[in-house]
Amino acid sequence: MIKELEFLIDVVKNASLLINEDFEVKAKGEDGDLVTNFDFEVEKYIIERIKEKYPDFKIVSEEYNSHNELSDNCFTIDPIDGTINFAHNIPLWGIQVACIKNSKTCASVIYLPRLNELYYADENGAFLNNKKIQINNCSLTKGVYTIEGPNRLPGQAKMKQINKQCRDFYCTCLNFVWVASGRLSGTIFTQDSYWDYVPGQFIVEKAGGVIYNSNGSHIAANSKEFLELLKENASYNENEKVEVIHK
């Protein structure tokens, strides 16, 4: 285990201890998203630890540094991915961080505290609670997958004509690590926020999976074939809009 990974595991585990049942929830933007005081407290703690250990590294994070771009040496931080789940006492949420060094992701940690699942990866592979993990070999028609992010309905409609096994967990980091551990066969995230997809994609890659990135399409899958299926049918298309009518 490289030193950057050891550092991230320690930081994330300690950051999770800040979280308890006494939290405040506020609206974030106009799209129904939520944010809690722990999103800010956890991120602040992780940032402080990183600055102490790696003062020359840039930070790209959801709450305090969301406008920063990735650099040759930087960290990405998502303090609570799946905040809406967290706010409603649904245990599908996690803390995720990644370290990019010399232009390459070298270490990643995703911790799902309520499930007691610690996922991490470095050059030695991908692991869940100290056990090595790998992708599954399910076929295109039988593999379970997720489509996460804005305007996902057109992609879901297309994909279900080929494979009906779509699931919604509303937690991007969980989707990626469940691909890495073989519970899912593929996932696509249709939003360009580094902290959401960089950590999980690295873990999938080190578990033997394949990844793809373009504007609005961040995919991880168990095979090139499943990746291409998601790419062709579930990628974000700004010209495809699905109107939801409330009666």
Concise account of the structure shown:
The protein has 247 residues and is an alpha+beta fold. The chain has helices at 3-16, 37-53, 83-87, 153-159, 172-180, 194-206, 224-234, and strands at 25-28, 33-36, 58-61, 74-81, 94-101, 104-112, 117-122, 125-128, 131-132, 145-148, 186-189, 210-214, 217-221.
Descriptive tags:
alpha+beta, seven-stranded mixed beta sheet, disordered C terminus, 247 residues
Whole-angstrom Rg: 17 Å
Sheet with the most strands: spatial strand order: 3-4-5-6-7-8-9
- Number of helical regions: 7
User: What would the principal axes of the Cα set say about the shape?
Assistant: globular
Largest sheet: 7 strands, mixed
Termini gap: 55 Å
Secondary structure: helix percent: 25-40%
Residue share in β-strands: 25-35%
The secondary-structure class comes to alpha+beta
SSE series = HEEHEEHEEEEEEHHEHEEH
Mean pLDDT: 90
Could you name the ranges where pLDDT drops below 50 across 5 or more consecutive residues?
Answer: 241-247
Q: In total, how many beta strands?
A: 13
Notes on the structure:
By secondary structure, this protein is of the alpha+beta class. Helix 1 runs antiparallel to helix 2 and helix 4 packs across helix 7. The chain contains 7 helices and 13 strands.
Summarize the helices and strands and which ones pair or pack:
Elements: H1 3-16, E1 25-28, E2 33-36, H2 37-53, E3 58-61, E4 74-81, H3 83-87, E5 94-101, E6 104-112, E7 117-122, E8 125-128, E9 131-132, E10 145-148, H4 153-159, H5 172-180, E11 186-189, H6 194-206, E12 210-214, E13 217-221, H7 224-234
Parallel strand pairs: 3-4, 10-11
Antiparallel strand pairs: 1-2, 4-5, 5-6, 6-7, 7-8, 8-9, 11-13, 12-13
